[in-house]
């Protein structure tokens, strides 16, 4: 897994979703970033009409920001990118960001999504992290791919664990109402200067905390992320160079390139499902959260499914499928049973839009058996050959919540855990959280930490899911990938705009939460030729009639009352 | 057994239900004997038996009957998160009356699911149901025990594979990049993709079921065949009946009650067609071709947390299922068979 999983994340996809992504490909980014998402918080507990908290009301809740100056990044954040660390990491001179254990030795149960096979509960990574923190954390790792199905049931029970990690893409249906009713207000421990007791939490950027306000209370411990789109069209640079393929600069050039590459007889196809890239190059409003899909144009709010760009992007994706440029496995959609990663490695297809963390992830995974393998990110282009118009993703997408019934001592212990996991790059705490124990989980080769098998099996997910430092990309073993990833984010960040509700945590009124449930399915059906563009137009007109227009009025009022968070 | 026990006509078969191995005559016999005794006497006499049934009765009560109360949520906009206790949540969720049902009947996705379910049921009835019977006859005709054991083992085996595995194997064989498609391409034809074609999806699902479960389905029929007395065959042979006549007049009549029983049971399950199997392949062809009632309920309830709506769909399914069982049972009676129950 990503050695610095906490930082590799971006947009709506979590770092640890990497293996998940690896196994279900981009279609799953879609699930994640896609539709049945959030509604989020209400302006007060009793207000069932939903809403958000911003401006003055939010200021009262937000923790103070105290920048961390442990290490200066080699590439500072720009245009919403992550920070990049490319120079060698001297393990012997790591700094300490948590001088004294804050944990009081209590027991804390944490339920969290896990992609892959969870390690034994008493493995050296968990035990050494626990002794570093001073809290006995007991992990309840659940399969990340089906997390949404378990989450609903666990939250409906009377036996909710002390801490529950919930990614934004799992906040569909009534989960937002569950978050508000089942989880504790952390404001009394973190708001304003109180956060200074936990210096690493105080260094989490304010826009990530802003997103952690659910139902008018500060409830989440955030995982900050770059707001630049997380979907990169990754391609096999080694094979591109060998065949002399040129990178496309428009939608038509891309299609022509696909035609050139595809040779089904030789078991080679051009790409995977390009839907999410299509949305980006056609400038479709973000689909990673419902609220991001709304934008004010000439005083009127429009939703992403109503736009021409949306239909054009779908039509373009459909053509790629229909022309046979897409690897046949992707026609299975989310139900794809086999891992596209190995087929990508075998060169069965050359372009794979995927979460940015896979740039490093696929490279690291293939490096051992496939020394020539080189994966690289393609710049997004405007469909007509101009600059692209990209829409910002959220600055935090995964949150840890504490059970409402937890006692103060449990909450303090949870914050002690978070204060260690949020330690910045260059500290001992970061190193242990992301790489484990030296000698057991990783060894130093040529001055660079390299995880061994045990490290790859045990130092995965878990602690990185609780709270993270400001978005960081740091892969000491592949500095060129690190540099390229951050620079990609900065170039794309320059084209990125923020839609009207960017940065806010919004709860839609209960009666509208199921209104947009079927769009993502319909998108995939159209791309695969099972449904027509006209079916989408019909669905949009039904959506308007069944409440979409009323929802528009509701959002309009919200915008008038709160203003937008985007600066 | 005498010659005359070979049922010659429908009427005769009807008078001898006890001959059949499964649709037992035991129950009817017991009823006759207990008819005259008082309740207390019967209770005292059967107390050990009753005691032994108690745990099972309790399980049925707790897991089958109590949850029926949960159907109340079909009439609510159920929000399980308003309280830690499901029953309290039920009391606090807003009552919406028949609104969920109105929504369902206007939802084209629901009607797609209904249609897909029925088409799949009839396809499986015609293409799947007879196959275990044929296989059982085949296995039954194998005399050498070794060959028979091996054949049975081979036939049973796929039943123990999980659906994920079965579908992965099918994809590797018949998918767009699968063995068949690549073979065709290597020989200059166009590749075919049987896994993502909505038009043949239902046949595909049926084929998968046959491959996986047809072998397993023969067990009941083999048991029925084993209970046919060899005397009958000998007697028939002496009357000059050949191989086919023996099958027609001895074997098949012996199987008929079992077939009728299983058919009624199958009809009761008609609206339950391969949940896991279909959920795994739903996205490959889209819900328009693949959604069945069970996946519809799952999608709306578990996935979208629209519990009230999903419960309403489940309730509709339950009501239709009962209707189907009653109808099938009636048909079984008209055919002169026991069916599942008799008044």
Report on this model:
The complex is a heterodimer of chains A (567) and B (343). Chain A is of the alpha/beta class. Chain A has two domains: 36-228 and 396-485, 3-Layer(aba) Sandwich (D-Maltodextrin-Binding Protein, domain 2); 231-391 and 516-562, Periplasmic binding protein-like II (D-Maltodextrin-Binding Protein, domain 2), CATH 3.40.190.10. Chain A is built from 21 helices and 19 strands. Chain A has helices spanning 5-8, 18-33, 55-61, 124-133, 147-156, 175-182, 187-190, 199-202, 206-210, 237-243, 251-261, 275-281, 308-322, 340-345, 357-367, 408-421, 428-435, 453-458, 479-493, 519-527, 533-562, and strands at 83-85, 107-114, 136-143, 163-167, 213-214, 217-218, 220-224, 231-236, 269-271, 294-297, 300-303, 349-355, 375-377, 390-391, 396-402, 442-445, 448-451, 472-474, 496-497. In chain A, the strands form seven sheets. Chain A has a five-stranded mixed beta sheet with strand order 3-2-4-15-7. Chain A has a four-stranded mixed beta sheet with strand order 9-12-8-13. In chain A, helix 12 (275-281) crosses helix 13. The longest helix of chain A has 30 residues, at 533-562. Chain A is globular. Chain B starts with 9 loop residues before the first helix and ends in a 9-residue tail after the last helix. Chain B has a domain at 98-334: MetI-like fold (Orthogonal Bundle), CATH 1.10.3720.10. With 343 residues, chain B is an all-alpha fold. Chain B has 18 helices and no strands. In chain B, helix 12 packs across helix 14 (243-268), helix 14 (243-268) packs antiparallel against helix 18 and helix 17 packs antiparallel against helix 18. Chains A and B meet through helix 5, helix 6 and helix 20 of A and helix 10, helix 11, helix 15 and helix 16 of B.
């Amino acid at each position: 897994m990503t050695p610095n999983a906490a930082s590799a994340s971006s947009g709506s996809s979590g770092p640890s979703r990497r293996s998940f992504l690896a196994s279900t490909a981009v279609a799953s980014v879609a699930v994640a970033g896609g539709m049945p998402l959030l509604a989020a918080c209400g302006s007060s507990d009793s207000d069932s009409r939903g809403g958000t908290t911003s401006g003055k009301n939010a200021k009262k809740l937000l923790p103070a920001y105290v920048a961390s100056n442990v290490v200066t990044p080699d590439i500072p954040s720009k245009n919403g990118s992550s920070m990049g660390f490319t120079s060698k990491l001297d393990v012997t001179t790591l700094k300490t960001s948590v001088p004294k254990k804050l944990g009081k030795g209590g027991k804390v149960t944490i339920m969290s999504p896990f992609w892959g096979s969870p390690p034994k509960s008493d493995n050296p990574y968990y035990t050494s992290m626990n002794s570093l923190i001073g809290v006995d954390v007991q992990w309840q790792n659940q399969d990340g791919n089906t997390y949404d199905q378990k989450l609903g049931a666990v939250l409906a029970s009377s036996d909710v664990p002390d801490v529950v990690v919930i990614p934004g893409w799992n906040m569909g249906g009534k989960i937002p109402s569950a978050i508000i009713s089942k989880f504790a207000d952390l404001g009394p421990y973190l708001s304003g200067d109180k956060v200074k007791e936990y210096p690493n939490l105080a260094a989490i950027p304010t826009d990530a905390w802003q997103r952690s306000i659910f139902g008018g209370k500060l409830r989440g411990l955030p995982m900050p992320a770059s707001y630049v789109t997380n979907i990169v069209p990754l391609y096999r640079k080694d094979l591109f160079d060998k065949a002399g393929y040129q990178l496309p600069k428009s939608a038509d050039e891309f299609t022509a390139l696909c035609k050139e590459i595809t040779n089904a007889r030789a078991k080679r196809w051009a790409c995977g499902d390009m839907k999410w890239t299509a949305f980006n190059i056609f400038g479709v409003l973000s689909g990673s959260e419902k609220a991001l899909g709304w934008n004010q144009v000439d005083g009127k709010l429009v939703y992403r499914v109503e736009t021409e760009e949306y239909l054009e992007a779908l039509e373009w994706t459909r053509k790629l499928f229909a022309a046979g440029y897409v690897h046949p496995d992707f026609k299975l959609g989310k139900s794809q049973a086999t891992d596209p990663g190995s087929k990508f490695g075998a060169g069965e297809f050359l372009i794979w839009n995927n979460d940015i963390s896979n740039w490093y992830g696929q490279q690291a995974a293939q490096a051992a058996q496939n020394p020539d393998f080189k994966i690289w990110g393609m710049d997004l282009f405007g469909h007509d050959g101009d600059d692209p118009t990209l829409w910002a993703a959220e600055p935090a997408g995964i949150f840890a919540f504490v059970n409402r019934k937890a006692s103060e001592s449990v909450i303090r212990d949870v914050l002690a855990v978070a204060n260690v996991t949020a330690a910045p790059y260059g500290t001992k705490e970061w190193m242990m959280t992301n790489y484990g124990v030296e000698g057991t989980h990783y060894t130093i080769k040529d001055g660079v930490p390299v995880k061994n098998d045990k490290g790859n099996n045990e130092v995965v997910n878990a602690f990185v899911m609780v709270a993270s430092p400001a978005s960081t990309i740091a892969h000491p073993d592949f500095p060129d990938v690190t540099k390229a990833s951050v620079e990609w984010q900065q170039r794309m960040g320059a084209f990125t705009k923020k839609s009207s509700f960017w940065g806010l945590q919004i709860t839609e009124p209960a009666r509208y939460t199921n209104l947009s449930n079927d769009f993502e399915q319909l998108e995939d059906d159209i791309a695969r030729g099972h449904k027509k563009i006209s079916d989408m137009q019909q669905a949009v007109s039904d959506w308007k009639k069944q409440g979409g227009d009323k929802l528009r009025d509701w959002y309009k009022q919200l915008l008038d009352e709160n203003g937008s968070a985007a600066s | 057994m005498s010659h005359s026990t070979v049922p010659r006509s429908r009427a005769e078969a009807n008078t001898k239900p006890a001959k059949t191995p499964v649709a037992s005559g035991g129950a009817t016999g017991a009823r006759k004997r207990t008819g005259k005794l008082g309740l207390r006497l019967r209770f005292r006499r059967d107390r050990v038996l009753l005691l032994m049934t108690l745990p099972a009765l309790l399980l049925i009560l707790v897991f089958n009957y109590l949850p029926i109360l949960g159907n109340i949520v079909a009439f609510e906009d159920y929000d399980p998160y308003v309280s830690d206790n499901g029953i309290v949540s039920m009391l606090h969720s807003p009552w919406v009356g028949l609104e969920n049902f109105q929504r369902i009947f206007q939802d084209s996705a629901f009607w797609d699911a209904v249609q897909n379910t029925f088409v799949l049921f009839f396809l499986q009835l015609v293409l799947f149901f007879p196959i275990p019977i044929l296989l059982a006859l085949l296995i039954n005709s194998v005399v050498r025990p070794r060959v028979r054991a091996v054949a049975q083992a081979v036939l049973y085996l796929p039943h123990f594979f999980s659906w994920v595995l079965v579908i992965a194997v099918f994809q590797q064989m018949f998918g767009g990049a699968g063995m068949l498609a690549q073979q065709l391409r290597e020989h200059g034809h166009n590749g075919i993709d049987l896994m993502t074609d909505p038009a043949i999806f239902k046949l595909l699902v049926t084929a998968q079921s046959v491959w996986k479960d047809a072998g397993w389905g023969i067990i009941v029929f083999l048991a029925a065949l084993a209970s046919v007395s060899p005397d009958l065959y000998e007697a028939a042979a002496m009357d000059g009946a050949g191989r086919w006549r023996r099958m027609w007049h001895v074997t098949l009549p012996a199987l008929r009650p079992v077939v009728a029983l299983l058919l009624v049971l199958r009809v009761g399950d008609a609206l339950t067609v391969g949940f896991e199997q279909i959920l795994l392949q739903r996205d490959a062809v889209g819900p328009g071709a693949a959604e069945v009632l069970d996946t519809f309920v799952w999608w709306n309830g578990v996935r979208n947390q629209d519990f009230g709506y999903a419960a309403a769909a489940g309730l509709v399914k339950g009501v239709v299922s009962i209707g189907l069982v009653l109808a099938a049972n009636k048909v079984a009676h008209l055919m002169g068979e026991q069916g599942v129950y008799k008044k």
